[in-house]
Amino acid sequence: MMAPPPPPQLMDELVEEVLLRLPPDDPASLVRAALVCRRWCRLFSDAGFRRRFRIFHRTPPMLGIYCSSAGVSTFVRTSSCPPIANRKNFDVIDVRHGRVLRTRDFRGPWMNVLVVCDPITDEQTELPLLPASWDLVPSSVGWNASVLCASNGSCDHLDCNHGAFLVVLVITVSDLIYVYTYSSEAGTWSKPATTQGLADRPIDWHWRPNSAVVGNALYVKFQYSKSFLKFDLATQGMIVIHPPTSRHYEHNTVLVATEDDGLGFAIVEDEKLYLWLGNASPDRHVGWAQSRVINFKTVLPDSAYSKFDVVGFAHGVAILFLRVNDEIFTLDLKSCKVRYICKDNGRMNDMFPYVSFCTPVGAAYSSEGLRVGTSCAPQTT
């Protein structure tokens, strides 16, 4: 007897509908699907399909976190993501819109270059030193920097990791604040926007490596007070925002960008997490309303813990990072689910989540993750 003919192949359109529904938070499953046959691999390799995949899911997964301490950053994977480029002797300053901002030396960008990189492809852009000559004692200067898409609020950030970007550098000397902006399109630093007398007190020239982009404004938090700076990317104007009163202000606080493009503020007091939302008024002041209170003892594992701290926020996926004694957990603000991440041992000062779509193109997969040939479209919002 002759063997029956093979069943007819599904149309590419139907196969795409199936592949679109694969979970983006498990890149390994995408690779396995791409390896089924050349036809499926060709579908994955199509830029139009990858774009439709991101649009279909909208919310990218969190692939991992950069943990910085003492001038060294390590990457901790939280999914089956590919091996991430993690160069030695670099410290991460900011992660956003698929890009990582690093520096070799925290003495300042007037003495050492800042580097913007794609951690999947390891493509790097070294920024020039500041055009000014800073004859300053490093201990008397506070600074922070943020990287973001250069779209001026018109981008959905689904596929902009290889497009134009900005780096905003904030420098404080006593009560003077300077803000420089680097444009990848121009390849140079702008002249500084400057203001005086905005800090609450002289010691406020230090900054926490925690920032948020809301609309066309960048918010950067002071290290030693509750306040944070709002920098308007269009007008170059600066004002200081004062969050709600709290007994604890040096740590236990992070800025939060909400899903509806609003500004939020998370703070830990005693054994509870308080979430506040801000509303700007016509006179440029921000009014605050408490939105949620979460008791840690109702959501965290029952153990002998005594100290809580909020150490980071994954913008776009509404996930907070918590330090509980010597352990790091994530708290999903939508579901209130808690997930253990790793041990801390006091070495993780700052955490920067890497939120990204990752789709394969002719990739191979092993126990170590995706191999060379992977195409990823990072997204951090």
TrEMBL record:
<dbReference type="InterPro" id="IPR056594">
    <property type="entry name" value="AT5G49610-like_b-prop"/>
</dbReference>
<feature type="domain" description="F-box protein AT5G49610-like beta-propeller">
    <location>
        <begin position="92"/>
        <end position="357"/>
    </location>
</feature>
<feature type="domain" description="F-box">
    <location>
        <begin position="12"/>
        <end position="50"/>
    </location>
</feature>
<dbReference type="InterPro" id="IPR001810">
    <property type="entry name" value="F-box_dom"/>
</dbReference>
<dbReference type="Pfam" id="PF00646">
    <property type="entry name" value="F-box"/>
</dbReference>
<dbReference type="InterPro" id="IPR036047">
    <property type="entry name" value="F-box-like_dom_sf"/>
</dbReference>
<protein>
    <submittedName>
        <fullName>Uncharacterized protein</fullName>
    </submittedName>
</protein>
<dbReference type="Pfam" id="PF23635">
    <property type="entry name" value="Beta-prop_AT5G49610-like"/>
</dbReference>
